[in-house]
Fold this sequence. Notes:
about 900 residues; 58 strands; about 10% helix
Amino acid sequence: xxxxxxxxxxxxxxxxxxxxxxxxxxxxxxxxxxxxSVAIIVENLVRVYxxxxxxxxxxxxxxxxxxxxxxxxxxxxxxxxxxGCSDDGNVTTWSWEQGAVLRKTKLQIPENTKxxxxxxxxxxxxxxxxxxxxxxxxLGSYSVKDGSLIxxxxxxxxxxxxxxxxxxxxxxxDRFAAITNGTxxxxxxxxxxxxxxxxxxxSNKFRILSVAAHHKESTVAITDAIGRVTIIRGNLYNYKxxxxxxxxxxxxxxxxxxxxxxxxxxISGGMENVLVKWTLGHLQNKTNEKTFIPRLPGxxxxxxxNNAHIAITLSxxxxxxxxxxxxxxxxxxxxxxxxxxxKALGAALVYHRPLSAxxxxxxxxxxxxxxxxxxxVLYNIDITAMNKIPSERQNLLPLETEVTCAAxxxxxxxxxxxxxxNDGINYPEEKLKFWAAQANNTSPFKLNTCVNLSHGGCNVxxxxxxxxxxxxxxxxxxxxxxxxxRDDTSQQHRKKVFWGxxxxxxxxSGITHFLSDPVLNNFKSGEILTPGKVENLPYMKEINRxxxxxxxxxxxxxxxxxxxxxxxxxxxxxDDEFAMGGVAISQDGSLIAAWFGCKLTLWDSHLCNxxxxxxxxxxxxxxxxxxxxxxxxxxxxxxxxxxCVAVWSLLSLTxxxxxxxxxxxxxxxxxxxxxxxxxxNNDVYVFSPHSSTPLLIQKRxxxxxxxxxxxxxxGTSVGEDVRLYVMRNDSEIYCLEPEKSExxxxxxxxxxxxxxxxxxxxLAHRQDDVAQNTHTNVTQTQDDALGxxxxxxxxxxAPHMIPPVSLLCPxxxxxxxxxxxxxxxxxxxxxMEVDPQSSDEEDTEVKSSHTPKAVQLWxxxxxxxxxxxxxxxxxxxxxxLHSTSSLFGL
Length: 890
């Protein structure tokens, strides 16, 4: 049983916690021995997910502080302990059933090296590859018991190109390691005999991307850049005694390959977003038979199998669990998985208060609805509703339509999104969509209005909605902002709601200097091939150290600067004097604020005309954000530029205060007068426009070198506390929230303190209050005594002998409140005389009533009650003549 403690104090201490956005696709997943769960590495810990439900059931942590885990694995000779290795050489052994750390071992690796692969040969030995600061590889076998070096393979010279794939197999009753480094070479190293090694060259000299070894036979499978899957059988230590079998379905480079547990099937996948299951040749009548799982939401990076299921790691930061019949069973999804173009364009972060969820960017053309209470992704909302553009060999990453901006009303009833695509060849694709909130399980929003080319094909840079979702403002690179209003019409006896444009407002001529520019796709648009022309693609055979496209695709989840902005800037004609910035709508919806270069303009939302222009030399060269104050700060306007923050008073049209600071985001709380801004140093300031002194300051919450906070939004908070969500690298979500105090927590009550009955438990706090209140006046003491007497009488009987509640409640409440029935002889008013010189004995007698003797609980006497009430009705008048005359004016 728990009792909630009351607390009226506001916490002054805040904590900064990471909520979501962790990458779950860094390493290969591992199935549990019982086949009911899957273990996934998430940075420096291991999460265990249920296969059937996709929920995280527990977490395994290390006892020593580590940076990240490299791999986890169950050894083949035992299936009840899980082994994991960190990048600094700490090997941890967990008991799988209890999740306890059994042993921790430090591998004796060379100094200044970092482990990049970890594979178990058995429960006593492991094979690792480490890299030093000079990009030189160290290969060795180590004991997982004491961490000592068993063998070091110095004769195998392998160059490191940020692509390493290792798989262990059996050949001639010895363990071997098959290694690929992104080149055309396949390296085979005998783990028991260091001198026994071989280097195999791929046919046609195409680059090898992944390798998988058979669990029992002397067989390996490799994938190359042209899309082939090659199976190599025989004595792998002699290139003259091996046979090759080529399986060719993939058109693009396959990034992952894996054998089934029994070895009868081979599973591969890559950039086509299709999982292929091959039947190997030794099964009769089913040679080269293929089954597929098509239209997966991301590129396949890793594949793991057990006897009944397949785990597929996708580039959209998710893991798909499929059964042996190639049917999807569950999906493990984490926030993130953005495309490189979406990271370059920037994305929005808004808070949906009715669901207590964050709307944030997801995979291409989608928004994710992340619940802040359950820490789960509730929905993947398809905004663009477009099929994925297929990749080509000369253009591995075609440009997709991306969601660029999003805004939501304060009450959560309406959502507005903008989408954009501009390849520099075709006319730009640009749409503005209005979504109505709905309460069903399929999707939280339903498309209401879609406006094609709302800004003439120019990208929308800012969106704003009023509190009730009746007015919307959108600004674009066409140097205009448009006002949209929600209208209701009746058609055929039914009400129809739609959005329409009132007008377009501009400060200068309103004619942009450019509509189409070769941005975003210029760095990857390949040569258009004619029929019969031979493809000549260097990435298939050669390694470009500076810009290797295959290396960047394999590590696409780590890339935050895939789009070269310097190339983009060369083709864009900048016009900072009239370029549109942020827009905002006042709390009452009467004013619109919009940036035009360095000039902050105010517009009447009803008449759609310019009211005034605000300018200051410190606001040059260009404004970025603007927000109106709310509640008692509604007469203030806060704006930011690249170097300062300024607060304008709308009553005097003057700057109240200004601070020199470099901000990346500015937001306002729609239900208070608070605002928040985030700086380039990852500092967070919470302030009110009334004063330049911040209410809350958090300095350098994270290292800016690892990523800068780009978006922030207020969440639901209690009282004057603040809950602020910030997003780093367009995927990682952090929360600045008050520290939980003991006053607001639930207090556990031990079994020894439990009351003897359930009803007694409900009244236990009443008895404690009466027992502690010993210094009160006489009248209050008598009332408490009556209540204590009633409780004692009530609890003196067995629970099954208690009368019905309908008869018991009135009298019980009368006893507690101290009500006393007026007898017939006591109807006349009597004056009670009190002796001023009362002795302490009387007080003692009154206090002694706190512990009355047990008396008979209740004796019903219906005739007396009826007789008293009848006499009272007959004696007192039914209506009060004075009150009725004044009421009716008589």
